Amino acid sequence: MNVLDGNDDTFWAPESGEGTSSLLVSFNEPTTFNVVSIEEAIQNGQRIESFTVEYRTGESDEWQSFGSGATIGSKRLVSGVEVTATDIKITVDSYNDKLPEISTVEVYAAGDLFGDKPVVLNGLTAIDNTEMEKSGNWTAETINDCHNSTSMYTSAANAAASFTFTGSRFFLYGTQDPNHGSARITIDGTEAALINTHSSTRDTNALLYASDTLEYGEHTVAITVVGDGAVGLDAAGYLNNQGAGMLNFETTALTMEEDEVYTLGLYRVGGSSGRVDVTVNFEPGTAVQNFFDTEPQNVVFEDGETYKEVTVTTKRVDGTATGADKGDTNFTVTMDINSTEGAGKAIQGENSAVNVTIKDAERHHSDTTELKALIAATDVPNTGYTSDSYAALTAALEAAKAVQDDDGVDAILKAYNDLNAAYRNLVRAGGIELPVVVGETVTIEAETGAVENNTADDDGWPATVADFGWASGGKGVDAVKSLDTVSYYLDVQKAGRYEVTLSYRSGNLANSIVYTSDPVGNITAGSVSAGASSTAEGTKQAVFTLEIPTAGLVEWIIRGGAEEAPQMDKFDVRLVEVIAQEYTITASAGEHGSISPSGEVTVTEGENQTFAITPDAGYKVKDVKVDGVSVGAVTEYTFENVSADASIEAEFALEKYTEDNRFQFPAEVGASAALEAELASEIINDESNDNGWPCVVTDADWASGGQFVDAINAGDVVKYYYNAPVAGTYQVTVTYKSGSMANQLSWSSEPEGLIESGTVDAGASSTAGAPKTKEFEIVVTEAGEGTWVFTGPAGKSPQLDKFDITLKEAEEPENVSKTTLEYFLNSAKEHLANGDVDDCVQSIKDLFNEAITEGEAVMADAHASREEVMNATLKLVKAIHALEMKAADKTDLEMAVELGDMIDLSKYVEAGQKEFADALAAAKEVLADSDVLQGDVDNAWDALVTAMENLRLKADKDALEDLLNEAAGLDLSRYTDESAAAFRTALASAQAVFADETLSEADQQTVDDAVAALSEAKSLLVEKTP
Questions:
Q1: Residues 6+ apart with CB under 8 A from 572
Q2: Which of 145, 642, 662, 972 could form a disulfide with 721 if both were Cys (CB 3.0 to 4.6 A apart)?
Q3: Is 701 exposed, middle or buried (0-12, 13-18, 19+ CB in 10 A)?
Q4: Are the beta carbons of 747 and 788 closer than 8 angstroms?
Q5: Is pLDDT above 70 for 112?
Q6: Domain total in the chain
Q7: Which of 578, 594, 613 represents a domain boundary (last residue)?
Q8: What is each CA distance from 289 to 67, 283, 330, in whole angstroms?
């Protein structure tokens, strides 16, 4: 058979391209596979529009679905669960009835990229949690998604699990959960990592840890629970292929421009023994063969090699030339390991495929917005790049800045790609690596610097590298004056404070150096005295502190002081203290959602920063990009161990139509709107009739929005909140897939009758191939808001993708006279312009504004009903009638309240206090009421002033109080019984008067009489005789 001969020049083709065609491939014996590889005879052009793959285990058995897709192109891999079959059948539809041609068909069992992905990576040897050594209290679980359906967890601090293996790398799998915490991993007794298993969502077979490459041999791994949350373990997997290793791409996601070349790295980890031959493939997705270079590339890792590169090339496809809006498209980069020589078999690693997104040039570069953003990001100073690479960047920047919006997509795209490539290709000139561990020292030989002599002040003694027999390297730098420079490029990994010891010789006590940096400020400028009376004194040292507040490449520039520099031998640089850097993460959110925190968020080096992404009601997270690369539709993202500036941006999409955000029917004849079926306001599944197939929203590539409504069984209900500005007849085109000719669509509305009920056939014999469409009409009987309701009929409904809705015929609007409305609207506007409303209470001002706004809207609405016209007119009439409701003058009341607040009630008798307090509180309420009328203000003033008048000051009891205090200190036993008794009587009377709180100023005589009586009784006290 031509598809099995390995020759791309031979191929299978049916007799005709009309309709569907099927290719049957039979195996000599039952064959196990999870991937079917199909190649078109691409030399004759791409002809296949869609395909399905089926399999069976014998001639008498039913065909089973294995997979399906849109295009095939030069090569298409169809993945599925692992099956064993005797035959496969490939059914194809072609573009425009062209004759489909297939050159090659292969089946094989592939790694984790395809099929049902196992917990433990294919090619690794698994160790189940049940096989691990355990200490502490671990709880076993049965979880179907886990390896061998088992898992275990514990919250006990210091509980541990361990295992021993022979190999060169291992992986640990387990549970990530909002309530889980940390664990320490040790390898052969040495702590290797502290892992955090906390996550905002639960995943029972997450990859918790992947080790670095280990020396091939036996290793023991221990996992110890910290105790800040539970830790769940599923299994471990280890690599034991005699050090042949595993292959990973540098990334799993890549975004490219059209007409761009990207160098993609391919790493060999877990060992590098033996020779590995690899083919890198470029598989179509929504991007077809003319969108990118599909030619496979061969890569060979020789023994000991760990890194290779391949090129990913996209092509320019002008969507406007075909009249098609292609949008962003994607394809996949995969790998096949052909052979391994000299060791065990190398395997595909955890990053064995790259999803490549091609940005649509027409969408992204119709103007220079994105180009200007790239210019701002790449216009950087030269901080140690090679002159050639920096010159290329400068040239690309100048060219990009010259491009204008009207230069066109191709010119803008070229400038963008050229600038992006120039920035990506910047090459560091390198630098002297300063120490990264506190206490470590790096020696910089002075003669390794770039010496620049300025002849203006060298006096015949130019700054130069000179031979010094006494110097550590036999050379040093001599005669550096104030206009000369010696420069050193430093690679600063850690911002911090460095102790520098300069070894030198000098014959001048005034010798010194001064230093700065480029970029300015990356090293704090300073000066150092480094002199001696004679070089005969031998080598001396000057010790100083070098402050480097910013990590990165920096040029350290040294000049001579006023009396020039000494003869410099070397600089011993020791890291004394590390300064944590501050980095900025720029967080932004698109419409219909938020990100928190947002804006420019400052994060200290080494810390983590978490962002919460929250969609608005009725919306969902569509995508989150970190530094321009998608991390999926997550609602939380954490930057861990921050070491550079970064960005995070969130994009949101409509999740469902809500009462506040309804689907809008088109309002003009001929206008159209698309209703995505998956945005249903409500789905009601009839569990009694779903037979295990509930009515749900399901993901699918064939659907226009990537999702469709599936399994609308009899009794299920799907609702859509809508607003129809115009009543009339609408042409509807539904896009769907169906596997039953009995499928129908049946609809009505809530409230009943807003949309005339109806039913239409919408079936097909098979869901294979391209989606189907069906046209029908609906009648909206009344403009306004409602709910479009689809109910599953007896024959069920198809898989719904979308409804394209066009207003075919609008109901003639009711001929409503607006003359009266227009009169009162103009009258209200005139009152407003004349200032008649200025003195009205606030509620009347608000009523005027609302009535005018509503009246203008109804006047402008050609479809306004009689009821709407009448309601708007009535509101205007009410506003005009209320003009007499003038705002009250509160000046007198404000003064009365202010006076009331000054009164100290403790100085007044209790009678009248409550009435005063109530009147004051009521007056304050009146003041706060913006709609109060003058009569109410006057009444409140009268009540408060009257209550003030009725307050009575308490009688003055100060003299009585003083006299009582004196009496309290008397010893009446010293006095005769008769005089003491008279005094006690007067005292009791005075105390009663003092305790009487009802006595006011009018009762002052009573108080004074009590004072006089008590004073007289005191004076008449007679002392006893001895």
A1: 441, 442, 443, 444, 500, 501, 503
A2: 662
A3: exposed
A4: yes
A5: no
A6: 10
A7: 578
A8: 21, 9, 11
